[in-house]
Amino acid sequence: MAYPKSSGVHRHISANGISTVALSVDHIEELLTMLVYDGKIERIAPAFEVDMGGGSGGGRSLGVKPKTDWMYRALRGSNIDSPFTDIPCGRCPVYDRCSDTGAITPAKCEYLKTWLSF
Known about the structure:
By secondary structure, this protein is α+β, with helices and mostly antiparallel strands. It has three helices and four strands. The protein has helices at 6-15, 25-37, 110-116; strands at 41-44, 48-51, 63-66, 71-74. It has a two-stranded antiparallel sheet with strand order 1-4. The radius of gyration is 23 Å and the shape is elongated.
């Protein structure tokens, strides 16, 4: 089974009118990259073309040139959302200064209060 490339995703979106905005392949690649970072899809290494042409030294050289069009596939994940995956401390910009006493504490943290009220 072949996985779609960004150009194929672009063709599908364009052909089916999924987007009301004209999107380029570059736009699609940016969206796919965000989905990779969000853990929704996986980027699969491209196939390689092997160049067996002669090198400058008179002998044969083996050059490997990667194609630029990545392939993508959906990841199967849990449909159950867990509040532990969104704990604010893991991405807090002042985490290093947070303590039990002082100006920055868990008791005073608005993000933690919101997260705990799930």
